[in-house]
């Protein structure tokens, strides 16, 4: 059905061209340039050189920057403030020509075309401007007007490209007193070819189309009927969903990508260009007939193509590499790589504009490929960014391209709430809140239930605090526990900020302990993405819950018990002894502090003592330095009373006693080559490795092992960064793995003993802080 919609839109064509050229007399154009004086036509070479003397090298813009590069733009520029024109006389000639230009460009009858002078440009021999696209510097700017002033020159033709077509705009009479007017749409790529001889002098204007939002283009009845029938069939016909085994569904949206490019400033119904204006108006009329919502939107398009063509890395089967062209580059990769097959495409819609011309903030959508149609492929446009991936074994050669486009988006008004809710969950919650405020409780619940099938996929991972607070308030007013659970499931406990916590506590007291436990159960079972750590906020949350009612206190105790059990299950001793797992060790230490602080706040000594016993048990005991670091962390930024409330005396005594025992033994002798084996694996290989490591005399081990068994030993040594080299003697079967202990182990032992002494001294000074007196 989408093909019929596309065909109906393609049949609506504008009579206008993307570029046009006119000629007119120059008698009414009186120009004076500061520092030069009046300009007489035709412009002589002497006068042109005088103009160059008061000009500057012309820059060009790229991504908000102003740059100079004669390989891109080589011309002279005189700013508009240096130019004086007798506007009253000039308008007598120019205004009638602008009316012709408006008709030729296919702009609507109701509007008026006006101009704003930008600059004067002088091109000398050999000078040019490489292919580029003008910036739309005003909301009403639709194009550019170049007034080619009479002068003797050869070359310097203006070439304009659009939708795979090219037109060359040349002067109609060189050397006469006749002016040539070149007009083209702002999104057209164009270039000035090198001047072969003489000087080319032009005035550059912005073309501004002043139109009213009320002006609407007439549409032939037959075209409207054909498009209306096609759109109605499209929305009524179920189609299979991509990558889904579910039953076919009716499309939600129709997204038509416009032919021309628009900026956020210029995107408006009455500023659309040529055929875009007619087709958008046709879709507006269809929307009114079929009772649909309709919007304009900016569309960021990403396409991935297979391609052919040599790259910069050695040809088809040369070196692997990555070539990229983005907005900082001047070339277009379309010439370097022939696009073969479109492999994947994606569109993101943003900056929405309604039928009333107002923006609709907060909307963002990624329509499915089966919801998108166009009459101009993106491949015919100039990408703002492209990347080439050369052959990489089983895949490549591919090009990724990104485009800025615009679109008309429409959908049936009967499905308006669900469709808009998918694009903007915050809008949906505000709508439900509005119904509650109007005392339409049943309708509010019905609307909220419409959200459940897609809510988990729609709620953004980075929801604002305001959205979370409003959602918590709304689910409390719905007075439906199951519905509240469904709406809160996508959040996660990390969203319970200090400002959101009071609203959540109110829900706990409203819906009860069992409901609250189900909420946390849903949050724990959410595997869509990695849930951010939240235990650091457990002490604050638990304190707030305990200060609430009976269910809040019970929930706080339940959370502490649950998270303590979870910690024991996920705890791994390796995290504290393997250097590469330092980040995991820091997270676990933070979780430990949070559990101890929560237990203190809830006055739960049994949970606290259970955690401390776990940290001192033989099989799960924290390494001494890690336990010391935990004690230091607990002491930092806490008052003496808060430290004592943590109940760390047993752990403090355990660490001090263990350090005294270790430091009471003699330091490592120069002939003691023993190494403490890593904890973890207890297989036969690792037991034999442990025996070698513990041996005080043995420095080298020659060990015949098969490849996979050697790899296991390599992994154990490298993972724990043991001071042991491993090399394979590649002879015999099996080959021999040679392990050699390094003298670095003596340096490590000395450094560790020094740190242990420092830690013990620090602990002894702070005995009273830990309740040991």
Comma- or semicolon-separated keywords:
23 helices; 4 domains; 30 strands; eight-stranded mixed beta sheet; extended; 39% helix; 773 residues; single chain; alpha+beta; Jelly Rolls; seven-stranded antiparallel beta sheet
Note the topology:
Layout: H1 2-10, E1 19-25, E2 31-33, E3 37-38, H2 45-53, E4 56-57, E5 60-62, E6 65-67, E7 73-74, E8 76-79, E9 83-85, H3 87-104, E10 112-123, E11 128-133, E12 141-148, E13 153-155, E14 158-162, E15 165-169, E16 178-185, E17 189-192, E18 195-198, E19 200-210, H4 221-236, E20 254-257, H5 274-290, E21 292-308, E22 322-325, E23 338-353, E24 359-360, E25 372-374, E26 385-389, E27 398-412, H6 416-423, H7 425-437, H8 441-458, H9 465-478, H10 481-488, H11 501-511, H12 513-524, H13 538-546, H14 550-570, H15 574-577, H16 582-601, H17 605-616, H18 624-635, H19 640-645, H20 649-663, H21 684-694, E28 700-704, H22 707-719, E29 724-729, E30 736-741, H23 744-765
Parallel strand pairs: 20-25
Antiparallel strand pairs: 1-16, 2-3, 2-9, 4-8, 5-6, 7-11, 8-10, 10-19, 11-17, 12-16, 12-19, 13-18, 14-15, 14-17, 20-27, 21-23, 21-27, 22-26, 23-24, 26-27, 28-30, 29-30
Helix pairs in contact: 1-4, 4-5, 6-7, 6-8, 7-8, 7-9, 9-10, 9-11, 10-12, 11-12, 13-14, 13-16, 14-16, 16-17, 18-20, 20-23
């Amino acid at each position: 059905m989408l093909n019929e919609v596309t065909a109906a839109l393609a049949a609506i064509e504008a009579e206008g061209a993307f570029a046009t050229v006119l000629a007119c007399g120059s008698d009414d154009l009186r120009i004076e340039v500061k520092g030069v004086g009046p300009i007489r036509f035709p412009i002589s070479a002497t006068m042109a050189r005088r103009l160059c003397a008061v000009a500057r090298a012309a820059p060009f813009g790229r991504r908000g920057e102003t740059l100079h590069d004669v390989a891109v733009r080589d011309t002279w520029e005189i700013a508009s403030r240096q130019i004086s024109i007798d506007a009253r006389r000039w308008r007598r000639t120019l205004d009638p020509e602008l009316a012709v230009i408006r008709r030729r460009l296919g702009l609507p009858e109701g509007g008026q075309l006006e101009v704003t002078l930008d600059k004067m440009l002088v091109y000398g021999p050999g000078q040019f401007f490489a292919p580029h696209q003008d910036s739309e510097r005003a909301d009403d700017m639709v194009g550019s007007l170049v007034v080619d002033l009479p002068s003797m020159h050869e070359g310097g033709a203006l070439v304009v490209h659009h939708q795979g077509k090219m037109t060359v705009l040349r002067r109609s009479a060189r050397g006469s007193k006749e002016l040539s007017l070149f007009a083209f749409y702002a999104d057209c790529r164009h270039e000035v070819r090198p001047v072969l001889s003489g000087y080319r002098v032009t005035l550059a204007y912005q073309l501004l189309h002043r139109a009213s939002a009320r002006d609407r283009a007439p549409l032939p009845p037959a075209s409207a009927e054909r498009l209306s029938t096609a759109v109605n069939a499209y929305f009524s016909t179920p189609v299979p969903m991509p990558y889904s085994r579910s039953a076919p569904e009716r499309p939600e949206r129709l997204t038509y990508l416009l032919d021309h490019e628009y900026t956020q400033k210029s995107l408006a119904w009455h500023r659309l260009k040529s055929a875009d204006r007619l087709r958008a108006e046709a879709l507006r009329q269809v929307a009114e007939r079929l009772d649909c919502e309709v919007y304009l939107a900016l569309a960021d398009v990403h396409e991935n193509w297979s391609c052919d063509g040599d790259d910069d890395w050695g040809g088809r089967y040369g070196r692997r590499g990555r070539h990229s062209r983005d907005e900082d580059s001047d070339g277009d990769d379309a010439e370097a790589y022939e696009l073969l097959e479109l492999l994947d495409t994606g569109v993101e819609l943003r900056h929405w504009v309604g039928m009333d011309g107002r923006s609709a903030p907060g909307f963002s959508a990624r329509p499915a490929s089966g919801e998108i149609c166009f009459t101009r492929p993106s491949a015919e446009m100039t990408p703002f960014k492209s990347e080439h991936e050369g052959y990489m074994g089983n895949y490549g050669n591919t090009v990724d391209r990104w485009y800025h486009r615009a679109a008309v988006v429409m959908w049936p008004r009967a499905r308006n709430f669900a469709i808009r809710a998918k694009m903007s969950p915050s809008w949906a919650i505000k709508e439900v809140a509005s119904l509650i405020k109007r005392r339409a409780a049943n309708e509010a619940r019905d609307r909220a239930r419409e959200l459940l099938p897609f809510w988990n996929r729609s709620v953004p991972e980075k929801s604002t605090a305001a959205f979370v607070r409003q959602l918590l308030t709304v689910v409390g007013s719905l007075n439906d526990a199951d519905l509240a659970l469904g709406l809160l499931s996508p959040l996660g406990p990390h969203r319970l900020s200090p400002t959101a916590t009071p609203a959540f506590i109110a829900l706990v007291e409203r819906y009860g302990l069992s409901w609250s436990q189900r909420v946390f159960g849903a949050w724990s079972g959410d595997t869509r993405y990695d849930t951010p750590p939240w235990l650091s906020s457990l002490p604050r949350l638990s304190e707030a819950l305990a200060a609430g009612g009976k269910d809040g206190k019970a929930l706080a105790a339940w959370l502490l018990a649950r998270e303590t059990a979870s910690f024991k299950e996920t705890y791994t001793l390796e995290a504290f002894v393997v250097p590469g797992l330092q980040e995991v060790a820091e997270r676990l230490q933070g979780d430990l502090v949070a559990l101890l602080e929560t237990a203190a706040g809830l006055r739960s000594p049994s949970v606290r003592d259970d955690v401390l016993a776990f940290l001192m048990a033989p099989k799960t005991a924290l390494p001494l330095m890690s336990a010391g670091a935990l004690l230091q962390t607990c002491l930092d930024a806490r008052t003496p009373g808060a430290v004592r409330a943590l109940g760390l005396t047993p752990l403090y005594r355990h660490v001090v006693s263990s350090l005294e025992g270790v430091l009471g033994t003699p330091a490592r002798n120069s002939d003691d080559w023993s190494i403490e084996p890593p904890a973890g694996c207890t297989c036969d290989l690792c037991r034999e490795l442990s025996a070698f490591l513990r041996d005080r005399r043995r420095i080298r081990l020659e060990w015949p092992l098969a490849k996979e068994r050697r790899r296991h030993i390599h992994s154990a040594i490298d993972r724990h960064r043991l001071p042991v080299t491993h090399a394979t003697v590649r002879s015999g079967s099996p080959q021999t793995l040679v392990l050699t202990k390094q003298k670095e182990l003596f340096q490590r032992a000395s450094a560790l003993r020094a740190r242990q002494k420092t830690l013990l001294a620090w602990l002894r000074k702070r005995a009273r802080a830990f309740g040991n007196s």
